[in-house]
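User: Could you check the structure of this?
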Amino acid sequence: MTNEKQFSDLEQNRIDKLLRLREQGMEPYPARSERTHTNLEAIADFEKTEKDENSEPVKATLVGRIRSMRPMGKLVFTHIEDGSGTIQLFIRANDVGVEQLDLLKKEFDLGDFIQASGDLFRTRTGEVSLRTDSFLMLSKAITPLPAAKDEEVDGEIIRHAGLTDPETRYRQRYADLAVNPEIRKIFQIRANVNRAIREFMDGNGFLEVETPILQPIYGGAAARPFITHHNQLKQDLYLRISFELYLKRLMVGGFERVYEIGRDFRNEGVDRTHNPEFTQIEFYMAYADYNQVMDFTEKLLAFTAEKVLGTTELTYQGKNFDFGKPWRRIELKEGLVELAGINIDDFPEAESLAKAMKEKGLKVDPKSPRGKLIDDLIGEFLEPTFIEPTFLYNYPRDISPLAKNLPGDPQIVERFEGFMGGFELLNAFTELNDPIDQEARFLEMGRAFASDSDDDFHPMDEDYLNAMKYGMPPNGGFGMGIDRLVMLFADQANIREVILFPHLRTREE
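Assistant: Sure, the predicted structure tokens are below.
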């Protein structure tokens, strides 16, 4: 353990300290700890009783990480932090003994976890503190927390958070969380978002379910899957790219309202709004169409914002939004005419549309079918302009194989996507429940996207078609990225900021 090649000089110094602690009878990693209050609970209890002159002193045993130490002769002021907040320890030689105070000064460091017991009181400067009569080491920190420097201010050693490089923060999220409390707040928001969504869905008669992550056939979205292999079954399996086809099987089985919050995996590029492993909510609602799902979506997000933020209003990257107001609704074809200057009705074939796009300076994949080209136009001209909450609806049939046709137009389906802050947040359909049409769509997609390496390839799922043949009620479906919603609520421009451990390229030494 004490191999100098393995540890830095600072780490070796701390290892020497933990060895001396053991020699003096204090285990640096004890098996048990005690706590009577969180730090903020202790302060609150003291403030309740301090106005009553006849009240007994509030006794407490507190725990936390040492954030500052200020030695003053036979007295040490120490701030410790637990999950609730910080509190000051007032540690005197008169209360703990000279030897224990010297032990604290010599062998305890910033970043160590400590347990302290005593009575609460208010110092002359007005700070609620614990007059400590005993303390223990709970966990010796061998590696100092990242810091720009340890600075002495009025005799107090202050640790300045110095972990600011984004890649280092993502790779060492544990250190990032330890020194950057504002990052911890992001993940508190994330937990509250999930809790609020579940409350809303449960309150509206939905059943939360779990569907397979390992799937014999991937489907439900346009994405390249991750492939793995089951040794005993001698079978290739796929990490799911969507919950959709399994959730809709449950509609066949008699559940009218189902939802799932969980992980999806897509073998795709990484950028500010994409991570290969991400969290989604999908729901399916029997006897609803995409118009009703739009209305439901507005209510869901207004409820979630109110629960998480205390208001339906929020600011994202300097822009103010209100989830309490109706979203803009723009028909896709009209949006492209207005913002791209292209009327897709004038270009019924992929070749002619590709030519029109090239004339506007866009790079075009010559193998792309017409629907994929239209999707590219959306990404180039529409999506970045949708800052206010916006529904874009009525999509091409050939990039929406699981959505029901718009009555009277066989080339358009009842699909919408929700945008905000310049990126896509959610996707929803009036779901196709005709098994014969669905089989034809799968076959059509197989011809249009001839290579199974294409991101938009939808493989034939015979079992899903078999389920549909038993009868699937008309229904509306919805999928939303939780990570992106948290980006909005936490005002973060990069998805990696809202994922605890985002995927990163292996660092070359």
